Amino acid sequence: MSAILEAFEEYVTITKARSELTVQSYMSDLRQYEAFAGEPIQHIDSDKTINFLSRFDNKKTLNRKLASINAFLHFCDEMQMQVEQFNLPMAKLPKSLPKFLTYEQISQRLEQLDRTKELGARDYAFCLFLYATGCRVSEAIAVQKDDLEQGWLRIRFAKNQKQRLVPVAPAALEALEYYLQLRRSRSAHLWLNYKGAPISRISAFKIVKSALGVSPHFLRHSFASSLILGGADLRVVQELLGHADITTTSIYTHIRQENLKDTIEQYHPLKENR
Predict the structure, then answer these.
(1) Architecture of domain 103-261 in CATH?
(2) Which residue among the candidates 243, 254, 256, 261 is catalytic per the annotation?
(3) Active site residue 217
(4) Does the annotation mark 159 as catalytic?
(5) Catalytic residue at 18?
(6) Which CATH number fits domain 3-78: 1.10.3470, 3.30.30, 1.10.150, 1.10.4160?
(7) 151-210 pLDDT, tens per residue?
(8) 138-147: per-residue pLDDT in tens?
């Protein structure tokens, strides 16, 4: 790896405190750019970048590559390096409502788990924990016993190294306590695999997928959607989710609007006259 990419990796990891996954994404994209250009990354320019980005039909992928390039250009500007500075617009993505499960759907599916066994109790408790807290999966798998106190969860491993406190519903705490009673290991970590080691992101995905047929992130959407439909203030939901920008949370307002529209169409007498 070139010296400039090593410096960039250190910059986004330490100075900008980006998550490990974000840093890996940046580095993968920039190495791919270098390979495409056939020359060191410091020779980056707008023409080569446009040619590089034109290879990607998927707009989300294209935007991710462009975000990595923009992060590198920002680094070069901060370090006063002599590279061409340019600003390419992100591709516009169609707005879509985040999909979610209702509590009834979640509870019905979780009832199928065998909670008499340690792993079944773990899977039940883990899924409820994600739905009750709105944690990112990376935050959830890092939780330790000491992070729970009097019904509150301290998320210490949050995105960009920020911390936040989230209240945990009694049902989720009861499920967790039952799982801990069955568990043989005394590990400080809450969520363990069959070997007694902390579960990985892949394991977390498999647990939720097997139990509910969705990804862990789907439960984060379900958490936020349930709050919004219940009338929660958007700023409160932002705080609970750990979003730095309210615009990120604002996607959930569309769920409330869509719910109101569906209610009118279902119950208003004029629906018969359409």
Answers:
(1) Orthogonal Bundle (1.10)
(2) 243
(3) yes
(4) yes
(5) no
(6) 1.10.150
(7) 999 997 656 557 889 999 999 999 999 999 999 999 999 999 999 999 999 999 999 999
(8) 999 999 999 9
